[in-house]
C-alpha cells in the first residue's frame, strides 16, 4: 500500500533526515587513510544510541541477504557499491568509499547514501561520483506533483547516458516512511510519462548508483556486499525526498560545510 504523508508526518521525517545527513557528513570527515571501517561503524552506532534513534539496518533480512544484517551503516569500497558489510579494513590512499545509512526516529525513517574519495582522488573517480550526484539532483527536480515515476527514472538514466555509464535495474530507489522500504520501486532508468502519478505527500528514496564499466553485479561470499561484475569502480548517491505542493523537499541534505569540502576536493583535481 502506498501511503501519502501529512505535512506533520513529513516534518517528523525531516527531523530524522537531518540526523542521517549529519551523521553521514561526520563519517565522510572521519574517513581518512588508515582509518578502519569498523571505526566508522562504531561512530555511527554511538551517534544513533545518543540520539535515541533506531537503525533500519540492524536485523534487516531481505530475501537476497545472508542472515540478518548486524550493522548500522553500509560501507562499500571501490568496486563494492551496495550493502557493503563493515569489516576490519584500513582505508588506503585513493579508496572510493560509499556510506549508506537509514534510521528511524519516533517511528519515521530516512535513508541516504554518499560516496567520497579517501586521500588522493583520481579524476575518473570524482567524475563517477559527480555523475551520481548530478543524476540525483536531476531526479529530485522532476519529483513534482503531476509528474510520473518514469520521469524520475528517465532523469537518472539520461545523466548516466550523458556520462557514458551503464545502468543496473535490479536495485534502485523505493518508497519510505514508517519503514525503510515501502511500496514503489524506482528504477535508475525508464521512460518519461510512465508509471505511478506523483502526488503531494509521497515520500521516496531516490538513489542513482553506477559502475564505471558494467551494469552487471556480483555478491561477495558474505551474502550482502554487491560489487561491479568487472571490478570497475562504483559510486552511489541517495536522498529521501518528500513531494509537496511547493515542490520536492529533500529531507536528508548534509550540512553545507561538508558539501563545500567535497567541492574543494573536486576542484583540486580538475585544476579549476
Automatic annotation (TrEMBL):
Named cofactor requirement(s): Co(2+); Zn(2+); Mn(2+); Fe(2+)
Coiled-coil ranges (or none): none
InterPro entries membership: Creatinase/aminopeptidase-like, Pept_M24, Pept_M24_MAP, Pept_M24A_MAP1
Gene3D superfamilies reported in the protein's UniProt record: Creatinase/methionine aminopeptidase superfamily
Binding positions (substrate): 83, 181
GO molecular function ontology, one term from the record: initiator methionyl aminopeptidase activity
HAMAP family linked to this entry: MetAP_1
Protein family (similarity comment): Belongs to the peptidase M24A family. Methionine aminopeptidase type 1 subfamily.
Designated name of the protein: Methionine aminopeptidase
The encoding gene: map
